[in-house]
Design a protein that fits this description.
Strand order of the largest sheet: 15-16-17-14-13-18-19
Helix content: 25-40%
Number of helices: 15
Family: Belongs to the aldehyde dehydrogenase family.
CATH architecture of the largest domain: 3-Layer(aba) Sandwich
Organism: Streptomyces triculaminicus
Number of domains: 2
Number of strands: 21
CATH class of the largest domain: Alpha Beta
CATH superfamily of the largest domain: Aldehyde Dehydrogenase, Chain A, domain 1
GO molecular function, one term: oxidoreductase activity, acting on the aldehyde or oxo group of donors, NAD or NADP as acceptor
CATH topology of the largest domain: Aldehyde Dehydrogenase, Chain A, domain 1
Keywords: Oxidoreductase
Distance between the termini: 66 Å
Shape: globular
InterPro entries: Ald_DH/histidinol_DH, Ald_DH_C, Ald_DH_N, Aldehyde_DH_dom
Structural class: alpha/beta
Length: about 475
């Protein structure tokens, strides 16, 4: 067990308020201690980022790219040390921690090493401008240039702490910004480990800083600090709303990836191959980090002619999954992040049962002691008005609902406050493409739950503000400056 300090200005800083324990969700044992932050300590981290801002923003993009490449190298070299810690603090299975957390984090730093070298000047065609009171006429030249925003506060989620932070820090550093990171309270240890790793890679002191805390105080202090120019947040819609209110008072830029309630629409023309794909996709809610991901297709909307067939297929899928310790390679379904989250998920299941929904699989706590486990749960015959069908649960729970025509499917899919990621399964991809235009969602997968790394990622409605991913992330972490001059 390691006791950590804050990572500020290239050094560990002992916290004034001491530490709080980080608990392994599978064993309920303490695996490390993270520092509690005071507003003054958050301010110190912001001051360090401000002091490093000018130098890093003027660093040659080739050098920024080289540093990001070296970060990727070191992450790859140290994954053997970091993956066990990541598993211990998140409860992720080895597959999730290694293949879907560390590997994508390495890939993201590589991607934004290249991104640092992407053109940041958009030339504009000359335009004749008539004479006027301010100035004589002439042929005016212009260009739009991307500039760093400044100090970026990166507040990350507990489900994928390292890869989520990499997706923020990579493009932010590539564009010449400096960063104060505030990981989620539940699992900040690997994020703290990144401080000295970045320093070893050649990142100047103060460009990347990390503060943590067991509650909301550290994040609130970071959002409210006048020296922070932008907040990038991944987490719940409720917290995102509070961040937006605070950031708006000082006109901070925000990038927010918030909650989701993904709908997987299975049309009546789905053949056996498409149905198999749809069942596997919806089953990923259970098999991928116990449903703790915002793009999860947690609502299966199935044409009535295929409804019972899909319910039966999902029931079999759930029954074949192994629940167990994340360090056991045979485990597919591990624990949830905390006892509080387990209890919250169980309350949603109980509420659905009380309202008359049919619990087809799961629905009771598995015989796993210790650990914060919830069995893969399949709920059928729910109505769109039920809480399980409208609210983000963030656990291994799937709700299946029938529809009779496309209009009804669209009404149900669009009938929540979220709009992050939906899916359409059809033997006719042209039909699915047309249906996607009717969905109020920032992302739509057609016959797949796989994502494309270069697409703009973000949500409609209360699922977020702004887009990242690929070159769009470089846009998100920069401001446009217009330059005009006469011929």
């Amino acid at each position: 067990m390691t006791t950590y300090g804050h990572w500020t200005a290239g050094a560990w800083r002992a916290p004034e308020k001491g530490h709080y324990p980080i608990v392994n969700p599978a064993t309920e044992e303490v695996v490390g201690e993270a520092p509690e932050s005071t507003p003054a300590e958050v301010a110190d981290a912001v001051a360090a980022a401000q002091a490093a801002r000018s130098g890093w923003s003027r660093t040659d993009p080739r050098e920024r790219a080289a540093v990001l490449d070296r970060i990727a190298d070191l992450l790859s070299e140290r994954r053997g040390e970091l993956v066990p810690l990541l598993q211990a603090e998140t409860g992720a299975t080895l597959c999730v921690a290694k293949s879907l957390q560390m590997t994508p984090a390495v890939d993201r730093f590589r991607r934004y090493a290249r991104g640092a070298l992407e053109p940041d000047v958009v030339p504009l065609a000359p335009s004749p401008v008539p004479a006027g009171p301010p100035a004589p006429g002439g042929l005016m030249n212009a260009a739009a240039v991307r500039r760093p925003v400044g100090v970026v506060g990166c507040i990350t989620s507990y489900n994928f702490p390292v890869v989520n932070l990499a997706g923020k820090v990579g493009p932010a550093l590539a564009m010449g910004n400096t960063v104060v990171a505030k990981p989620a309270p539940q699992d900040p240890l690997c994020c703290l480990e990144l401080g000295p790793l970045f320093q070893e890679a050649g990142l100047p002191d103060g460009v990347f800083n990390v503060v943590t805390g067991s509650g909301a105080d550290a994040g609130e202090a970071l959002v409210a600090h006048p020296g922070v120019d932008m907040i990038s947040f991944t987490g719940s819609t409720g917290v995102g709303r509070k961040i937006a209110e605070t950031a708006g008072r000082s006109m901070k830029r925000t990038l927010m990836e918030l909650g989701g309630k993904g709908a997987a629409i299975v049309l009546e023309d789905a053949d056996d191959k498409v149905l198999e794909s749809a069942i596997g996709a919806v089953g990923s809610v259970w098999s991928f980090h116990s449903g703790q991901f915002c793009t999860a297709p947690t609502r299966a909307l199935v044409h009535r002619s295929l409804y019972e067939r899909v319910v039966t297929g999902l029931q079999r899928y759930a029954g074949a999954l192994t629940i167990g310790s994340p360090v056991d390679n045979s485990t597919i379904v591990g624990p949830l992040i905390s006892a509080a989250q387990r209890d919250r998920v169980e309350a949603y299941i109980a509420g659905a049962r009380d309202q008359g929904a049919r619990i087809v699989a799961g629905g009771s706590r598995p015989a796993m002691r210790p650990g914060f486990y919830v069995a893969p749960t399949l709920i059928a015959d729910a109505t769109p008005e039920m809480a399980v069908a409208r609210e983000e649960i963030f656990g291994p729970v799937v709700v299946v609902m029938p529809f009779d025509d496309e209009d009804e499917a669209v009404r149900i899919a669009n009938g929540t406050s979220y709009g992050l990621y939906d899916y359409v399964f059809s033997a006719d991809t042209g039909r699915a493409w047309a249906l996607a235009a009717r969905l109020h969602s920032g992302n739509v997968g057609i016959n797949t739950v796989r994502r494309h790394p270069e697409t703009p990622f973000g949500g409609f409605k209360k699922s977020g503000i702004g887009r990242d991913g690929g070159s769009f992330a470089l846009h998100a972490y920069s401001e446009l400056q217009s330059l005009v001059w006469p011929s």
